[in-house]
């Protein structure tokens, strides 16, 4: 298959290059932030004299245009920056780096024009959400802690996992069907404090992009979405220190050049301090408790020469929750080493070495029941990606990826005097690999198509044991043992991707996409929130890969000289090998977990409406999603379709920001969604003197509707032009009208009448204010 793809790529290159004029030359380079020197992702580079010629910079800010010899005016635009016009005499291939300044900066040496504001209409991307970090920071936040995942939950097609949680669902997919990448390393648990906050420190983030559909061929491994997060590279012009002191946490970021214009670093950390206040308590039961999390982001980059650049980045974070009798901690560690190489002015490569580790530990400190329970999933990977700027109408991407997964579901070690038994569940490993090829092809001035193919392969390998079961698939009758790296089970398949855009006119376009995705690793959880003790398992002899096909179409239009940006998208997704649990399944510490799992099909469809105001003192957006998700799994609900827990028919969001004065701005978020699906007891019966509940059909009832209003006000102290120090105060109110949204519902015998059962709703947050002080110098 790899040979066939390579041959196809070479043949495609030959066909596309045939007949190209010999007097064409190439203009290439990087688009950078003029203040920090960081590469700008997705900046638009076009030629004024050739309206149909243009390209967007890649993930590292690189662009390449092949043009006939001549004199041109290069237009470089980026959201929030001043457009720069560069006259170019193109007689031979040359390199041209362009630095952009933010809108507040006046550049005398170039002509300033209105920035290009219609990328949403004329770019290839659909079912894609881009958010600037500055916009995320301006939104009201829980306890003043800025959270990019909660900001994404305010967009169409994205549902939150519950009150206060950082888990999310995209277009009917499960929480584990989202691929979250931080500088290309996968993050398996993106939550702090049991899901109330995400692990992403906004001070260290440069770019956030969520793909709900039309996922590029270079990415795979999850069914529903790709959340691609890129860390800052560090200011290579001057030292900069920023941070904040909030109600629940404090943070500090330092970035500076190591060698100006050549190398820089960024170091960003934050920590909560509830444990500090516990220590000051006079209550001895509280005094000995710990409850905190910390994050550390670090990144260094070095420009070796014009054709080679090196990046090293890492993330380290951990949560600790402990009492005198018990403890729990969990955390992520990721590391990437990336090498950018320019073979020539058209061929760009990126080679990435990846490490990711998610682990957790639970335990009891009491002597008689002392134990430690540990679990982890570790990834070691390498990616080799290429971008070939064939000509202004064709941009090829191709490459390969290999990942080694190691799964350790659980290992329990008892204390010396403990009655707890030692236990170690069957650990296993797997090799996941893929090759891909795609091409963004501008067929006419109005029609552009991006087509690609990905071939993925997954091999479950030893050491490990595989049970052989009886006909009822309940009792093991034999065991097959596999040695280290011995193949246990192999899966694979083709994943076609195609997207098309047709410009109707200067202000509107229609887009469509289709993609197939395969998922080989799965999360086993009984919780709707991102709990730290969920277990990840690989596809194996009895657990097949999940598969999804999605089609989507959309209409995109801007109004009032690009003041308003609007879109309507519809989608349909059908899924196979969806995993769900038997009734009364035993998930915890089950060494034969496959006997508790059932597999079936699913479908999700819906419509998403989005309107954003981009100019003026009042900015923001309104979104509405109408959707439905169903699963059909033999052995559940009598084989009839049922709604998964994350199915919600209606959801809407309103996000507003108002610049009241140059120093004062206000923000407001309002969100609404119908309640998630739950299974409830509808009766009970007695047998041998004991009472047993009778439950409804699977997820046959709904939680109460969810809605909440958040408010914020920020005062930014005017900066003296002769001083570098600046500061601001932000007052946020979470749940301004104190809505008691259900966190969970449990059932108990009625205290007044024991023959009846009553439902009890628990909620987390009422009216919750917070105050944050931010600084920068």
Automatic annotation (TrEMBL):
Instruction: Give every TonB-dependent receptor plug domain span.
Output: 144-221
Q: How does it sit in the membrane?
A: Multi-pass membrane protein
Q: Which UniProt keywords apply?
A: Cell outer membrane, Membrane, Receptor, Signal, TonB box, Transmembrane, Transmembrane beta strand, Transport
Q: Taking every annotated instance into account, which residue ranges of this chain make up the domain TonB-dependent receptor-like beta-barrel?
A: 288-735
Superkingdom of this protein's organism: Bacteria
Report the record's Gene Ontology biological process terms.
siderophore transmembrane transport
Q: Which InterPro entries match?
A: Beta-barrel_TonB (IPR000531), Beta-barrel_TonB_sf (IPR036942), CarboxyPept-like_regulatory (IPR008969), Plug_dom (IPR012910), Plug_dom_sf (IPR037066), TonB-dep_rcpt-like (IPR039426)
Cytoplasm as a keyword of this entry, yes or no, is no
Q: Which GO CC annotations does the UniProt entry carry?
A: cell outer membrane
Where, subcellularly, is it found? Cell outer membrane
Q: Which Pfam families match?
A: CarbopepD_reg_2, Plug, TonB_dep_Rec_b-barrel
Write the signal peptide boundaries: 1-23
For the keyword Transcription, the answer is no
Q: Name one GO molecular function term.
A: siderophore uptake transmembrane transporter activity
Q: Which family does it belong to?
A: Belongs to the TonB-dependent receptor family.
Q: Per its record, how is this protein called by name?
A: TonB-dependent Receptor Plug Domain
Q: What is the lineage of its organism?
A: Bacteria, Pseudomonadati, Bacteroidota, Cytophagia, Cytophagales
